[in-house]
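re: ur question from earlier - yeah i can do the single chain one, its not a big deal. heres the input i used so u can compare w yours
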Amino acid sequence: MKGSSHTMIGVTVGAMAGFQVQPDLLNIAVGSFVGGVSALVPDLDTNGLATNRITLSKKITQWLMQLVGAGILVAIVYQFFNAGFSPAILLYGGIGLLFFIVSRFITQRRMLTLTGVMVMWLGIVMQQSIGILLMGSYIVIASFLPHRSYTHSLPGLAFYAFILNQLQQDWQVDGLLLAGIAGYASHLIADMKLLPMNRRGVKWFAPIWNKEW
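and the output i got, formated as C-alpha cells:
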C-alpha cells in the first residue's frame, strides 16, 4: 500500500482516537496529526514517504559535503601560501578529501541513520528527553532493517508505544499514546496478506515466528 493511503487511514483512526479521549476539535486535530504520522513510521525501514520526508535528499547531501570539502581544501591552500607548511595541513587536507570520498558513497538509508543520531542528540539537548532519545534510536535501528521486518511486528508496535508513552509524559499531550498506537497498528493491518492488494504480509510475531499474515 502507498504511503499516501497509509496516511489517510492513520489520520482517520487518529481522529477517532482523539475523539475518544476528549470529544473536542483540538483533540481530534491532534489525534489526526499523530495518527497520520504514526501510520508512516513502520516504513522507516525503506526508502518510502516517511524516510524521504525526514531526511535531506541524497543529491543535496552530496552537494553540501562536497562544498564543505572544497572549502576546507581552499582554506588549506591559502594557509600554505601565507604561513607555509605545517602538520595540520595534512590533517585538514585528509578531512577535506574524506568529505569528497564519503559523498560518493552515501545512501538515503545512511542519511536516515544520521537523522536518527541527530534526533538522539536533540533529546540530550532538550533536558535529556527520554522520549526523543528513544525516537532517535528507533530511527537508527529502522535504517538498518530489511523492509517489513521488525518495524512491521508486534515488538515494533510495543517499542513505538513505549516511545509514545514517554513523549506523552514529557509533553503532557492527552491522547498522543492512543492516537499513535492506532495509526501505527492501522499500517500493519493495511499491509496484511489478507487484503487482495498485498502480495506480501506482515510478520506480526517476528522474530519468534516469521510467518506472514
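The first helix runs from residue 3 to 21. not sure if urs matches, ping me
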